[in-house]
């Protein structure tokens, strides 16, 4: 009798303990669920945003919205003050949360082997044989001298004799490519020079007047480029004719 009574008491105690443990577990799970539902405000894209859009520009294109904590994407942006000077790295679509990883330094979006065009200048591209552009040994940011050479006289009514002149100094190269695609910077200069049938596409930044002269040289004569540096002599050079070469 005592044994059965003792067993009953133990069973009752175990039941009470089990109920307490179950209640604690349920309470903890409920707390966790409530914590996951805790609302958090993040910035959400409201209209299409193109890559390159600045943070200042996209301020009017995003809006704060509340989401359960469990629905927040890692890196979601809650304010834009920490991203001044950055731009959208990719196109963004309405409804997506704005992520920090998609706001980058604008320099990271620059095209490879290219530099910005100085204010007031325009770009002009020339396709030149390798032997007229240092075997292709040029890159964006270099400055070059532009030689223009004609087989005929340099002015109407003049005697038709060959003429050459170093017409421009310190012309900025903004882009470099090849006739077959972009320059392979991993290829050695020797290998690139060996491609005798290849040409180099060089883009220069010039004023309208200078660009017109360069185009004329390409259309009716020949153009050569020389790489210049900070110490290159930029004194004016007279037009040279054959009789002066052979003096």
From TrEMBL:
Superkingdom of the organism of origin: Bacteria
Matches recorded under InterPro entries: SAF (IPR013974)
Keywords: Signal
SAF domain mapped to chain residues: 40-104
Signal peptide: 1-28
Keyword Transcription: no
Pfam families found in the cross-reference section: SAF
Protein known as: Pilus assembly protein CpaB
Source organism: Arthrobacter glacialis
């Amino acid at each position: 009798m005592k044994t059965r009574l003792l067993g009953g008491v133990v069973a009752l105690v175990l039941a009470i303990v089990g109920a307490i443990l179950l209640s604690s577990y349920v309470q903890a799970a409920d707390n966790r669920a409530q914590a996951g539902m805790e609302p958090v405000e993040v910035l959400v894209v409201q209209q299409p945003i193109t890559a390159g859009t600045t943070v200042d520009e996209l301020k009017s294109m995003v809006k704060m919205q509340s989401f359960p904590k469990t629905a927040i994407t890692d890196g979601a942006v809650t304010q834009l003050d920490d991203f001044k000077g950055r731009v959208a790295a990719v196109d963004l679509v309405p409804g997506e949360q704005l992520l920090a990883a998609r706001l980058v330094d604008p320099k990271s979006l620059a095209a490879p082997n290219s530099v910005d065009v100085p204010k007031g200048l325009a770009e002009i591209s020339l396709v030149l044989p390798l032997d007229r552009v240092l075997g292709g040994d040029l890159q964006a940011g270099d400055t070059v001298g532009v030689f223009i050479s004609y087989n005929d006289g340099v002015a109407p009514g003049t005697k038709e004799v060959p003429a050459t002149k170093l017409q421009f100094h310190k012309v900025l190269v903004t882009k470099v490519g090849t006739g077959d695609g972009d320059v392979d910077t991993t290829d050695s200069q020797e290998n690139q020079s060996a491609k005798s049938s290849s040409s180099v596409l060089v883009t220069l930044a010039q004023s309208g007047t200078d660009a017109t002269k360069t185009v004329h040289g390409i259309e009716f004569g020949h153009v050569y480029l020389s790489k210049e540096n900070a110490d290159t002599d930029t004194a004016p050079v007279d037009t040279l004719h054959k009789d002066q070469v052979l003096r």
